[in-house]
Amino acid sequence: MAYLGTLPSGELVPVLSSAVSAPLIRLISLLVRLSTSAYNNGLPATDFTLKIGGRGAELIDVSQFFGIADPEVEKHNFTYYEDLFAEEEEAVTPANVLLKSYRNIQLHNPGQYDVEICYNNGMITKASWEVLPLAQEKKAKNVIFFVGDGMAGSMLSAARLLGHKTINGKYQTKLKLDEARVFL
Prior knowledge:
Layout: E1 3-6, E2 12-14, E3 31-37, E4 49-54, E5 60-61, H1 62-66, E6 74-80, H2 84-88, E7 93-103, E8 111-119, E9 123-131, H3 153-163, E10 166-167, E11 170-171, H4 176-179
Antiparallel strand pairs: 1-2, 3-7, 4-5, 4-8, 6-7, 8-9, 10-11
C-alpha cells in the first residue's frame, strides 16, 4: 500500500481511492475549481497543474491522488464593465479564462495536506488544508446552517424568519451573524 505521509500522532496516511462510497467531502470541499486567467499578453497559460500530498510527503497530481480522470479544460471568453464609469466610457475588460473542475473529491483521513498550483511557466502558489477528525459524539441538534457569501438583506430576513420565534413582529432570539462583533 502507498502512503501519503504521517499524521502528527505518527499514524501513516494511506493513498485515498475513488472507490470509497462515502458522502461527498464535508471536511474540505465538494468541488475544487482551478482556473488560470489571461496573464501573458491576454493569453491564459494552458500548462497549469494541481498537486496535493500529506504534510512533508511528495506532492502528486490531484487526479492520481484521488484516483479520478483528469477533467477537461473549460474555456471562457467574455468581456465585462468593471463599474458604471467604465460602462459610460464603453471601456470593456476582457476575460480569457481556462478552468478545470475536480468534482466529488473526498478527504477522509484527518491531517494536514499541502496543495500546490503550478501555472504560467513556473509560477507556483501553495496552500495548506487541515482535515479535522469527525467528532466522536453528536453535539449539535436542530441546526440550520446558512452559508451566506454575499447574502442580501432579504436573504437574512428569510433566515431570521425560518430560524427564530417572533412575538408581535419582534424576534425573540438573534442569529449568530447578528451577534458578531463585526456588525455591532
